[in-house]
Amino acid sequence: xxxxxxxxxxxxxxxxxxxxxxxxxxxxxxxxxxxxxxxxxxxxxxxxxxxxxxxxxxxxxxxxxxxxxxxxxxxxxxxxxxxxxxxxxxxxxxxxxxxxxxxxxxxxxxxxxxxxxxxxxxxxxxxxxxxxxxxxxxxxxxxxxxxxxxxxxxxxxxxxxxxxxxxxxxxxxxxxxxxxxxxxxxxxxxxxxxxxxxxxxxxxxxxxxxxxxxxxxxxxxxxxxxxxxxxxxxxxxxx
Length: 239
Fold this sequence. Notes:
Layout: H1 3-28, E1 35-36, E2 40-42, E3 52-57, E4 59-63, E5 68-77, E6 86-94, E7 96-101, E8 105-106, E9 116-124, E10 132-141, E11 147-155, E12 161-171, E13 181-186, H2 205-232
Antiparallel strand pairs: 1-3, 2-12, 3-5, 4-13, 5-10, 6-9, 6-11, 7-10, 8-9, 11-12, 12-13
């Protein structure tokens, strides 16, 4: 084989390898999908002319090695009048743990809704008509579990909840444990990664009982969360 032909083949292989890396990198660092208010509902009646809602990205990406993810939580006033003092809560459930929300304060453990594992309170002094405010959220997502997030919009003192998005799930029905990252869709219940690769299969009685027990625990947590909020706030429930 001539040296020219060998050089051409080698160059082609390098180009192909480089293209593969580039495609891989883009997939692993996919941008957030279009913002969505999926899973949202009005709760207490807002003041006349005030229409508060929230949005979450349609898609997020979870790093399979660190479990880290990031997303943007946005509160909007689509009404014709200013909102007055309000606050946005960002609360994590199950496999989704909120680690930080830029410009917000962590909610003390004793004040978290039952069933949640983390939360931050974001004070909004006033949201003008037609305006929105976005917050950068850092979180982790355990792909072996389901994961949910909840965004209530309340009065500054927390006595009323005008809008609540969630607890709405992020997840995938097609886990990819061997990839650098796993994309998750808003409003999709996560299908936990099955045993394989670096994970040892579960054996014994616990293997058969765990899925049912986990499902029961999730239902109990959701029910208790509503009870917690109704006890602290007699008007309506949140999260």
